[in-house]
Amino acid sequence: MSTACDAAPRQADRQRRAVPVLVAVLLALLVLPTSVTGSGVALPAIGRESGASLAALQWVVHGYNLTFASFLLACGSLADRWGRRRAFAGGAALFTVASTVSAAADDILLLDFARALAGVGAAALLTSGSSLIGATFKGKARGRAFGAVGITTGAGLALGAMAAGLVTDTLGWRAFFGLHAALMAVVWCTVPLLPRDGAEEHAVRGRRPAGEDGTEGSRPVRVDWAGTAAFSGGLFLLMLGTVEGPQRGWGSAEVLGLLVGSVALLAAFALVERQVRHPMLDLRLLRNRQFTALCLIPVVATLSFVILLPLLPNYLMVANGYSSRDAGGVMLLMTLPILVTPLAATRLLRWGLTLRGVFGLSLLCLTVGVGWLAAVLEPGLTPGTLAGPLITLGVGLGLNFGLVDGAVLDVVAPESTGTAAGFLNTLRLGSEALAIAAVSAALVNLVRKPFDARLNEFPSYDGSSGRLANSVNAGDLSGPLSELPASVRPDFTALVTHGLTDAWHTVLWASAVLCAVTSAVICFLLGRSTTGTR
């Protein structure tokens, strides 16, 4: 009887602690995706106030993406060593401070650095937050909790661009980062209400209690710092070389040095991962064909959907004359379907469609959507014209949203599920960071060509073709137009908008081809055995 009496208070205490865990994690995971989608919308306003170059402006987005991807697994290891609550608190504090510095920054380099720090905080929040949910909720309650996580993350992704446009147009870009700081400060205030775990209790000794959350017993949980440093450094040099290529020339010694350095560090990373006992990424998982195929699905999503989130609003502001708020509103056509399409995917599985079939439909929508956008994109197009391809892209992402993560865990050994999930998330975020940087660089490079050929027709314009390419790709046409007499502005606008549109056509068609080829490889690797009905 005493056992039953003791169990009741423990159950009640667990339920009381479940509410603040869910509230804290959901609020954090609402903020993180808006930081990705919204910062791109705020770039034109940042550029106009700071006068920074496009290369420096891009690191407001790239710095966050880079550190988010690079530190994901290291933060997961630190959560195991120091405790989930401590890691969550540290991530919330770092994100709050970094966002406060971003809101107050009067120098673009300081803003870039603060955004990179925010990415580290985001990595800690994502890994420890998911772990807190998994440890706090059991059985069906855990499924409902993770369902709420998916909906909240989708909402942040869906509403981020519009919210950023609204805040930026109304209160200024600093208010956007200030709002992030305020919301994350609320998250940090909930930390005392979160439950401790065994790792936190034993953090002074740097050991876990025997048998908790793994098989290491009392051995210290090791962080693969060498792998983390090599991976982060290689990805950073590759992104920096990609961004600087159009500015300095692809054959310049600086750019070639960056690219060679990135190859050397990534090769060193592969060697390190083969040698260490607890690698950041277990590359042996790639021998599993189905695992490799599932990890490639987010790459298709990146090439078709994710690259548009920070970059397409800038095109709409230049080619259509939209405000930040209007551009963010149009992006809702692409992001809102993410909130409802996962339910459709569940229905399709219940009706007998295989998981491979759902993934195939998702890949088809993503590939068709980006090709459709390439076919219709032109200056002055209406939201009605954009609706078809953007909704198709949103449906395509929504159909695999969350399903990929679950399927990955089903095709690896039980003892490898943690590593597999970390591998997937690191590849997902790393590909996003690199693809956004590559597409940004390609657009600058492509749009300079018509400017080089025809800019001499406008002698009153005092800038170079490179400066103009940087401005319009950052979403700013008003600055260059202000330097011209009113009589030539319509012709100048036509040159810019058509040159920018041609560059976008090239990028989008290339993305469509890459998506089609990658999708075919995925379907081949999956074979016929992915038939689960989750």
Automatic annotation (TrEMBL):
Residues 21-530 form the Major facilitator superfamily (MFS) profile domain. The chain crosses the membrane at residues 54-75, 87-105, 117-137, 146-167, 173-195, 225-243, 255-272, 293-312, 327-345, 357-375, 387-408, 429-447, 507-527. InterPro entries: MFS, MFS_dom, MFS_trans_sf. Pfam families: MFS_1. Coiled coil: none annotated. The keyword Membrane applies. Keywords: Antibiotic resistance, Membrane, Transmembrane, Transmembrane helix. It comes from the Bacteria. Its main location: membrane. It is found in: Cell membrane. It is a multi-pass membrane protein. This is MFS transporter. It comes from Streptomyces bangladeshensis.
